[in-house]
Design goal:
By secondary structure, this protein is mostly helical. The chain is 77% helix and 0% strand. The mean pLDDT is 84.
């Protein structure tokens, strides 16, 4: 951008003339156009966006776009001010839509995270309830059955090691484990009422 000669002070240029001079690279003409119209553009944008910081940002974007696209201005279709205001309105509405889309995405991600957390909590609760049910049912087994399951399932012993530890033949340990699992399954699937 080169500095153009100053505009004659005694000549009042129209906004359309200033925009046309801007096409030729006259930055002083564009500065004059900005000084005349920026408050109206900012006012329109602020009514749409409400947020002052975003409004100022969009206003700057509008004037940057106007500087780049000044050659597209057609004075037969309207005034330079109207041309700027149409661009400002469109840009502000685009910003609102973009912000709304971002909020919608954030809400969707939040809901998905909340549902995942809720699922994790529900799953953890189910596991705890099941664990409690098994622990309660284990207490209802005979001491021999309880010992067989505690050694093999909770103690990590093989059937042979559990038989040695309990001092019984391997066949007896296998039978105790099988019978204990059958009894435990019945107790867990069909729990007894708390009052019995």
């Amino acid at each position: 951008m080169t500095l153009a000669p100053a505009l004659p002070a005694d000549v009042e240029r129209s906004n359309e003339d200033l925009l046309s001079l801007s096409v030729e690279g006259n930055d002083r003409a564009f500065t004059a156009l900005y000084d005349r119209t920026s408050s109206r553009v900012l006012g329109l944008v602020r009514r749409i966006l409400i947020d002052p910081a975003q409004s100022e940002e969009v206003t700057q974007e509008v004037f940057l776009q106007a500087w780049k696209e000044a050659a597209h201005f057609d004075p037969l279709k309207g005034t330079a001010t109207a041309w700027l205001l149409v661009r400002a309105r469109r840009r502000a509405i685009d910003r609102v839509r973009s912000s709304q889309a971002a909020r919608d995405r954030d809400v969707a991600v939040g809901i998905r995270d909340l549902e995942a957390t809720r699922d994790d909590v529900a799953e953890t609760a189910e596991i705890l309830i099941e664990h409690q049910r098994v622990a309660t049912s284990m207490k209802a087994l005979t001491p021999a059955h309880r010992e067989a399951l505690e050694l093999t399932y909770f103690g990590g012993y093989t059937q042979s090691e559990a038989a040695v530890k309990a001092g019984v033949p391997i066949g007896t340990m296998k039978t105790r484990i099988r019978d204990a699992l059958i009894a435990l399954r019945k107790l867990v699937v069909e729990p007894r009422p708390a009052w019995s």
